[in-house]
Specification:
166 residues, single chain, alpha+beta, 3 helices, Delta-endotoxin CytB, elongated
Length: 166
């Protein structure tokens, strides 16, 4: 079984005006452009008296070597989403208003194909390999993954800041 180290956990939470479809497509495209394969694990919508509630969970994976893989796990929670008309450049356009929260976890997977799991001796060798042989590489990948997860949240914040300036 792959060894998984959580490297990053962060979130963005904001109540504002935004375009849900644009935000969804923007963040999905950003992950794909960064080399991730995105799998949507959960998508649910519920209509309540205060508006729509939407839950989304993605699992985005990127192979960085035969031994290491980056995994980003964005979880969306949108509360009280309603449709609003906003004037932009003299034209009325349809947008959404509500509370958006996106949490992101980042995991560095080692031996994600479980090649070192066939015996106790191989598991021991994997421990030696991780601690002594590729330690600097592991630390470099951890920094890179941390940076990518942090950048994902920064992109989200920037998108909301630009969208809110109708």
């Amino acid at each position: 079984m792959a060894e998984k180290d959580t490297i990053f956990e962060g979130k963005v939470k904001q109540t504002d005006i935004f375009d849900f479809k644009e935000m969804y497509n923007f963040l999905y495209k950003w992950l794909v452009d960064e080399g991730y394969k995105v799998d949507e694990k959960v998508y649910s919508e519920k209509v309540t008296a205060t508006g729509k509630e939407i839950d989304i969970e993605w699992e985005a994976k990127k192979k960085v070597s035969d031994y290491f893989r980056f995994v980003l796990k964005p979880k969306w929670k949108i509360l009280g989403m309603t449709s609003v008309d906003v004037e932009k450049d003299g034209k009325k356009i349809g947008m959404n208003k509500g509370q958006v929260e996106i949490k992101v976890g980042a995991v560095l997977e080692k031996d994600y194909e479980s090649r070192w799991e066939n015996s106790a001796f191989l598991k021991f060798l994997r421990g030696v390999y991780d601690k002594y042989i590729v330690r600097a590489r592991v630390e470099g990948y951890e920094r890179k993954l941390f940076g990518e997860a942090d950048e994902f949240l920064a992109q989200m914040k920037s998108f909301l800041a630009l969208e809110g300036k109708h």
